[in-house]
Write a structure and sequence with these properties.
The complex is a heterodimer of chains A (about 325) and B (about 675). With about 325 residues, chain A is of the alpha/beta class. Helix content of chain A is about 45%, strand content about 20%. Chain A folds into 2 domains: about 140 residues, Response regulator (Rossmann fold); about 130 residues, 3-Layer(aba) Sandwich (Rossmann fold). Chain A is elongated, with a radius of gyration of 25 Å. Chain B contains 18 helices and 20 strands. Classes of the chains: A alpha/beta (about 325), B alpha+beta (about 675).
Amino acid sequence: MNEDHEIMLPLVIGIFIVILFCLVMLIKGTNSEVYKVSVIVSNSSSGRWVPFKAGLEQAANDNNIRLDYVYTDYIDNIYTEASIINDEISRGANGIIADFCLSEGSEDVVASISARVPIMLVETSVNAGADIRGNHATVMPDNYAIGRAIGNEVVIDYGEELKGMKIGIIAGNQNQYAMQDRLKGFMDATMKINPEAVWCISESRYTEDELIKANEKNPADIVVGLDNNSMETAVDYFLGNRGGKVKLYGSGCSKKLIYYIDAGEVDSMIVPDDFSMGYQSMSDLAIKLQNRTSALVDREVGFSVVNRGNLFVGDNQQILFPIVQ
Amino acid sequence: MDDNVYLNQTDMNVGAPKNEKEAMEREKLVKASLRKTKSVFYRYMPHDIQGTILLTFTIVSFTLLMILGIVLYTLFARRMNISSIETTEQLMKQSVVNLEDYLLSMRRISDAMYYDVIKNTDIAEGSVDNEMNLIYEAHKDNLVSFSLFLNDGRLISATPIATVKEDLDVTDQVWFTSALGKMENLHFSTPHVENLFLDPTYKYSWVVSLSRAVELTEGSNPRLGVLLVDMNYSTIKQMMERINKDSAGQYVYLTDSSGNIIYHPKQMQLNYEIIKENNINEAHYTDGLHEEVFHGEHRQVIVDSISYTGWKLIAVLPESAYQLDIINMRFLVILLLSCALLIMIFINRIISSRISLPLNLLNRSIRNMENGDMYPEDIYVGGTQEVEHLGRTLRHSIERINQLMDDIVIKQEEKRKSEMDALQSQINPHFLYNTLDSIVWMVEGGHNKDAVFMVTQLASLFRISLSSGKNIISLEQELRHAENYMNIQKVRYKNVFNVVFDIDDKIKSYSTIKLIIQPILENAIYYGVGDMDPDDGGEIRICAKFVPALSDFLTISHEKSEGKAGIEDVSTDEMIPEGDIYIDVIDNGYGMPPEVCDNLFNEEYEPKSSTVKHGSGVGLVNVNNRIRLRFGEQYGLTVESEPDEGTKITIHIPAIPFNEENQKILESGHYRTLRKKADKEDKA
């Protein structure tokens, strides 16, 4: 009888363990946990975020992530943005994707958030402390290169004629490193010919008023918008026949701006690959959430130069008019 | 060359024993590991019948369940695969019908516009705008725009009315060239963003262009033109999204005849080359089910063609699509098998227990029998017919053995009895002659009182000797018999020695074989103190005592130390106390030399200086044999003697309370039965 127990007891225990394991696997299932990621960008319903949002949605779908694209107004205060992010975390967000409105002095905010959940910054880099755990990273285009590309477009169009021309710059949110880099890139690209930059305004709630004031005071021949908002402000003002005949250059991706290229009002524009920015940031964050030991790493997305001639050609068609599933 | 050959041969010769040695060592290792495996196997294999049955049944059950599980799993997996393919095929058929309906309706719109409006209109005089607008309004959910161009690219009419792009040149657009390239056909383009009109609301629509060459009438001149119907791509997209909704891993996409993707659920990822699709090859597959390996993944592809357009609806069922269901099914099958196996183990256990229990009980009975318990009633008889038969046979055998053993005891007893009778017949005449001679002498000398005493003692002696023919009497009677005997002998020997009885009263209630003290006393007189001078102070001392067994002795000692009575409590009439009785017969006579003392119970020994025997001469041997035959080898007589110092003979018998039952059992020679009975009572 004892021998019988000696053989059968481990076997019975083993079978019980197998039964329990199978039950747990059948009840719990082999599906991985669904994580929630909140996306906080300034003025979330703006047309400039359409390709970015399409990228986010595709990546969320591919990685089984619940996307919470937070509706926001114009954000120009880092504390307001931090407050929205904290609210999202307290509502159960496992990860955050955010476009910070302030690059310098945001170390504490980043540290505070990344200590709780991984955060992926988009559009611009920020000043953040050392990240041992790999809990934050940035996905953005090469902003200096974008700035240079805008400058190159101006230089190509005007050549030496540029020397006597007045340039007005709507420089986006200069609290962001991204816009600072673009401005620097643009200035470096046009440095050789050295046109006269008659005014340079930074983005705020009152950009349009400042633009009117600056241009009335010192009208520009060429106006450069370094980001989508700046470009749209310029388009609204100058193509509404209020600002006279000026040439517009800049960067953006909204359909409104594409329309003006299509209509021949804007000669060329630099279009950052916002779809990739959205897709990449969400994918990386999903990997981080599914494997906590992995580290988020900085990534760079591309950009393209579009003009009326190549607007509907091949890849540009896909980038400019993403098919939203 | 020769040297090399020689060296090689030498090397080979040197190598051969090494190899042989290695081979032997390897063989040894293999044998050792085999032995170890065998010992482990033997160690864990059950050695009892229940374990063997249980293990065998369990292995058989497990094997059968495994086969059943594998068969079920294979069948289910195949059925699941077939079912999934059938479902997808049905879905595909339905989708193809829907798409064909949609595209047919678009063709009909185009036909209606062409045959009912354009063919009946002279564009030099009239316009088709109204009719075009009417048709557009009727189908505007599925249409983005309607337009008619001349073959030089000039726009004749379009709806909804919108601003045509400046410098628009449609002649290099694909839909235009296709229409004029094959004028007899209707041409469906791949999806593209409409590039004809400017919408001030910044709307850019993805469209699929349906274009055809049309014949126009301009005055009296026929002209060639192109009719373009820009179908809303979102209609096709929605149809396809519905198909792909809730699909677990599998998906359906749409290509043109060349494999250019019209719709794919992950179109953006494909455009950005995040994922890859085998669309170019799959579009060239014939309709039906195909299997392929794409990027290392095995997958099944179902292809169906959309009539007229040459479009292909392709369903992809990657192996991973079934993976979740397959994994869940595996867990389910393992769970069911484990539960079944567990139940089987319990059932097998009950069955094996039912089969082995009677055998185990019978085996236990045999083990008890081996330990000496020869009680037939304790042998298990039951279980299956075969086991019951075995039990019954064994019981009969034991009964027979017991009977034979009893017969042996009875025969032994008869032998002892005959010896006893012989002894008694030896004692009686000689002793009677001497005693009667003494009585005669007393009567003649006028010692009537002494003569009366002698006669009384003699009468008592014979009464006890007879004891109604019983061999077992109480120690009290035996001691009285000894006393009678000594009283007679003292008279006969004219009181040349003293007799002292030092008897523990408690032992008087125990049993003994009769006439075991008297022969020793007789020897003590004849060889010890009988021939001594009255002044030498000859003495015979008879001491009798009870000695408890070691366990009882310890109990008694303990109780004594606590101030309780010891032996009284132990020796009751109802049971045999664990103890012995020692009766010492000590004389201070001439004693014996060691060689005589050592050979006292050797019947073949003849002493060198043979003394004239006054008594029977066989008394001690007889007494010793009787005690040992009756009670066992551990009992009997022991002799201690020193020449000129004296002799001490100790009678050792078990302490058995004297009562009728014990007397009866002992009379029949069944001291062992009595002992077992006592043991059983102790255990109980």
